[in-house]
């Protein structure tokens, strides 16, 4: 039984883990997600049996929706217990997000062995709350250990799992896929699976002048919420700009980009390590525990990224960073090479091994 959801950063590690387990044995899977989460649209496409519980995230600002949270949590705990009782899993795995709390807690109280996979340098609140109920905690970065010093005996450093379909294509093949000019540099911009409004607004502001100064192309995932607005903007009519609400075939987008601009979600970083491209990271400032900022600074310290923090006039810093990378091939090559020390292509397989070990042990 595998639980995770809310964002692609929690959903895709679950899918990658399931893919790795399928290669190692004959397993039956049940994925549990949030009733209104994006996972309910994504996971069934992979042929995975899926159920949902009522839980939704607790907002870190005042909203009337938070009044329902205690009721949703109680109902979700009951739903989790009923799901686990019927499915009778040999192990319960959580890949993060609010949905994993009720599922893993209920599983642990029923004597089902629990494994947590945490993607960030600073472990998420679900991991910190449930660590005492887990038998194994798989972390992505050595640096996360200092936040989990009271349970080091449970920790295995595996890296973050990425989707099996994330293959690196030739630039020529990828450029053709997006109908772009192979002779011009390409900037690929995206803000995670749901887009990033701040990055979108920054591009609308800086691109007109930038495209006059530099003969470059922009492949831009806006997210579905901002797509219509940006499509109506004059910048979308520029022949060197391609906008998409959502890009499913990310492997082609990564492979086409000469420079990448993105948020600093942990799974995004794991995928960037695979494709090894120079990147400008703009961490989401309101992420729980500022985990994207922690992630981004760690990658910058390894020499693989430039980090731009949102704030007054930050769009100018973004423009300057783009100019710096476009004008310096050796800098781009050095940043791309720095990802090599961070790539862990075996992460999903190692997590699968830990799940199997947990089943055998119990």
The CATH fourth-level homologous superfamily of the largest domain: Glycogen Phosphorylase B
Report the CATH topology name of the largest domain: Rossmann fold
What's the number of domains? 2
> Architecture of the largest domain, according to CATH?
3-Layer(aba) Sandwich
- Overall shape: it is globular
- Percent range for β-strand residues: 5-15%
Structural class: alpha/beta
At a glance:
The protein has helices at residues 8-24, 39-42, 69-87, 100-109, 125-130, 171-177, 197-213, 224-232, 250-256, 266-275, 291-301, 314-327, 329-338, 347-361; strands at residues 2-3, 31-34, 50-53, 92-94, 114-118, 136-139, 155-157, 186-189, 217-221, 241-244, 259-262, 279-281, 305-307. By secondary structure, it is of the alpha/beta class. The protein folds into 2 domains: 2-160 and 345-361, 3-Layer(aba) Sandwich (Rossmann fold), CATH 3.40.50.2000; 171-341, Rossmann fold, CATH 3.40.50.2000.
């Amino acid at each position: 039984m595998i639980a995770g959801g809310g964002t692609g950063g929690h959903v895709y590690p679950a899918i990658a883990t399931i893919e790795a387990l399928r290669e190692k044995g004959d397993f039956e899977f049940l994925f549990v997600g949030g009733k209104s989460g994006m996972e309910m649209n994504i996971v069934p496409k992979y042929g995975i049996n899926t159920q949902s519980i009522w839980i939704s995230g607790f907002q870190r600002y005042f909203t009337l929706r938070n009044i329902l949270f205690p009721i949703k949590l109680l109902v979700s705990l009951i739903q989790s217990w009923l799901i686990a009782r019927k499915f009778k899993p040999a192990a319960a795995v959580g890949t993060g997000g609010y949905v994993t709390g009720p599922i893993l807690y209920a599983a642990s109280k029923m004597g089902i062995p629990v494994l947590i996979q945490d993607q960030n340098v600073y472990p998420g609140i679900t991991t910190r709350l449930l660590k005492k109920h887990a038998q194994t905690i798989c972390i992505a970065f050595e640096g996360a250990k200092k936040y989990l010093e009271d349970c080091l005996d449970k920790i295995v450093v595996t890296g973050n799992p990425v989707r099996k379909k994330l293959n690196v294509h030739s630039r020529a093949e990828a450029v053709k896929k997006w109908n772009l000019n192979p002779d011009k540099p390409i900037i690929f911009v995206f803000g995670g699976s749901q887009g990033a409004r701040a990055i979108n607004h920054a591009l609308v502001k800086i691109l007109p002048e930038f495209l006059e100064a530099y003969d470059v192309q922009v492949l831009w995932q806006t997210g579905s919420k901002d797509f219509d607005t940006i499509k109506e903007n004059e910048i979308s009519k520029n022949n060197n700009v391609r906008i998409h609400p959502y890009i499913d075939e990310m492997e082609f987008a990564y492979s086409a980009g000469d420079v990448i601009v993105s948020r600093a979600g942990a799974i995004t970083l794991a995928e960037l390590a695979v494709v090894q491209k120079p990147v400008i990271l703009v961490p989401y400032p309101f992420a729980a525990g500022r985990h994207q900022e922690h992630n981004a600074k760690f990658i910058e310290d390894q020499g693989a990224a430039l980090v731009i923090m949102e704030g007054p006039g930050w769009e100018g810093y973004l423009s300057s960073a783009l100019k710096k990378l476009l004008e310096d091939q050796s800098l781009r090559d050095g940043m791309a090479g720095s990802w090599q020390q961070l790539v862990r292509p075996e992460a999903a397989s190692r997590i699968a091994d830990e799940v199997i070990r947990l089943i055998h042990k119990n």
